[in-house]
Amino acid sequence: MKPNLIRLDRWDWYAIVLPMIALAPLLFFQAIYLWSREHMQFFPLAICASCSFFYWEGQSKALLSLVRVRLSWVLSGMATLLCLIALVLYSPWMSHVASVLLCVSWAFGRFGNLTPLRIFGICGLVAVTVPLPLEMDRTLVQVLQGLSANISSRLMDVTGILHFQKGNIIEIATKPLFVEEACSGVDSQYALMAVAGILLLIGRAGLVVSLITIVTVPLWAILGNLLRIYSIVFGLEFLNVDLSTGAIHTILGFVTFSLAAFAHWSSVQLLNYFVCLFSSLDLNAIGRSVNQQDGKVGAISKTSGMPVFKGLFTVPFVLLLFFPFGIVGLLEFSFRSVNPPLFASQLANMFPKDGDVPNQLLGSERIGFTTKTRVSNDNLGQYSRIWQYSRENADHVASLDFPFRGWHTLWRCYQATGWKEQQRIRVETSADDESIQWPFYESRLQNMSGEHAVLHFSLFDGNGAPFDSDIAMERNDAQSRISKDLISTMLRQLRSLKNPIEPVTFQFQLMTRSDSPIPPEQIQIYRQMFLKLRETVHKKSLPALEAFRRPTLDF
Q: 541 and 478 in one domain?
């Protein structure tokens, strides 16, 4: 007797359409967050690839066994519950995870001709776009960055290229090179994992080959970045060609990424060869035959109606009750500016210059002054005014960096260059006006070269007022958190609609380096040095801030 086969009616609406509508505002915020991370900007391509596989391989008319139907409903219930949790906690990250599970449950109930392994593989392309929670993806970036720098340094030692490695900065005779994030742009482990998934789906690889391929992705990502970094160094040293900037650097990135992907695909083919050679079963052929048989069975079987789960069809409508809360968040986002303004050079030149700070201060002597100009959305700020001080056992770099929008987490910039944070404290102090509190942050750092450093920094806004907002810091880190509270988030967003634009901010920092550990009594001196320089630079910046606030001036 043939088993009862079923086709689920209105499954698309229940399993994916209604839940996705409810999650749409949170998914929008998650998409904005992913696009802000350079190593995650491949996510639209991965989603399109997943949709393409379902379109070309899925047979929506194929019927399902009763076991498959029950499994589909169980997965759909789990996905709906996760959607509800994401909406209550107002978590974009969790909504992203819920959308992946929605795709899996929908595919199980929609395409009876696809095996579970095939469905998990196709939905895995979407799962790759989910960043690790709790800033673990940033930690992964820093680990791969350090590995790329270390391996590149060893390769340069072997090939006789004179250099000096300082954390993630490799200095050669031509210029110092900052080893870019090993997961950035097209050289991303996430992107390479997505490419590996596509190649595995095209080749219909078995489970064992797929697992080995995914596990070895980091090795090929590091190899691709090693090739890119060494090509830049080789071009500078022997060809007098700078491959580190501009369109040629982008082309180099695509070439090295393609070579890494090709090498990875070759390893997959080699694994497939050994699987077929040492096994009496052709796993790929089995996978194809199962798909073909499933499709045939569905085509010749009769259809039965919706099972006893009909009443559960109303459950996704509960999720839509949270949709208005998401709209409030979209209104906040649409009115709130997140990018710093573009400063013209005439306005930037009004900020403090070389002679505006003391030549000698607490035993340190000023030895230099430089300015730097970057692109408007650079993480380090569009402009920097940099003063160098020196003393017997340490070197100081004081810098006024601007503009930023809201809070700027400076210690992360140093962590990206190879410094490891040993300790961080918040020190309560007063501004020039003793009645106003202006705290600053102190971080103790150490890099791979054995250097020790103490970082002091604080921010002020376009009015010259101290800027230190816990709400701003929470908003800056919110996307990396697993969950937030719906009610408190909504109240904050409703309040922010009254003053939606985060202020333009200016950052002053003092970075002190030493070859030996810095004793506590010296740190106290560096604190006083930071406070005196901050007071001077802040006062000298007030005329420029006044000009910045004038809407009639065209800079």
A: yes
Residue 143 pLDDT greater than 70, yes or no: yes
Domain count, the chain: 3
Residue 289 located in a structural domain: no
Cα–Cα distance for residue pair 106/122, rounded to 1 Å: 12
| Residues 421 and 381 both lie in one domain | yes
The model scores a pTM over 0.85: no
- Is residue 359 included in any domain, yes or no? yes
Do 64 and 24 fall into the same domain? yes
Calculate the alpha carbon distances from 458 to 39, 58, 66, 356, 466 in Å. 29, 56, 63, 19, 8
Considering 313, 335, 357, which residue would you say is the last residue of a domain? 335
pLDDT at 34 over 80: yes
Residue 14, CA distances (Å) to 69, 92, 232, 254 in order: 14, 21, 53, 41
Phi, psi values for residue 8, rounded to 5°: -80, 120
Residue-wise pLDDT for 153-164, tens only, equals 888 888 888 887
Three-state SS string across 82-101, please? Answer: HHHHHHHHCCHHHHHHHHHH
**Using one digit for the tens of pLDDT, what is the confidence trace for 58-101?**
776 667 778 888 888 889 889 989 988 888 888 888 899 999 99
**Cβ count within 10 A of residue 296:** 12
For residue 104, the model assigns a pLDDT of: 93
Q: Are residues 331 and 366 in the same domain?
A: no
Q: Is 340 within the bounds of a domain?
A: no
For residue 120 the two structure tokens come to 């998990």
Q: Does the structure show a pLDDT above 50 at 295?
A: no
Domain carrying residue 155: 136-278
Query: Is 554 domain-assigned?
Result: no
